[in-house]
# Entry
Amino acid sequence: MSSTGPVTQQQGAASAPAATSQSSSPAPTLRKPGSAPLGRPPVKQLMYGFGDVPNPSNDAVGVLEEMLIEYLTDACLQAAVVSDKRGKVSVEDFKFVLRKDAKKRSRVDELLYMNEDIRRAKKIADIPELDNNKGGSKDASL
# Structure
């Protein structure tokens, strides 16, 4: 009867991937329940930035963190499915996953544009004349 008893942690970890491919339950996480992979302070800051109180309850932070992790995991898994033929996930795969959500898709496009804009500005700022001052010339203190 001990074989029908509760599943140990090792048995559960070994059988978890097989169980998820057959059922519609969410993908298993490889982290311990209650651990904070994102960290509590960033989630609290996000909550405060979107209008919550400065110190939200730990339960609220935990729920939001779980929802956030689940959403990001699902988005990554969907992008992986889209890129299955190529074997490499790209930005275009995430754009495809977000194609029906205009608000999120436009935010992704905005962030990608700003990333390119910053990259161009860094390239422009990397002028050889500016590199000469890095060596501690007497004009560097001005």
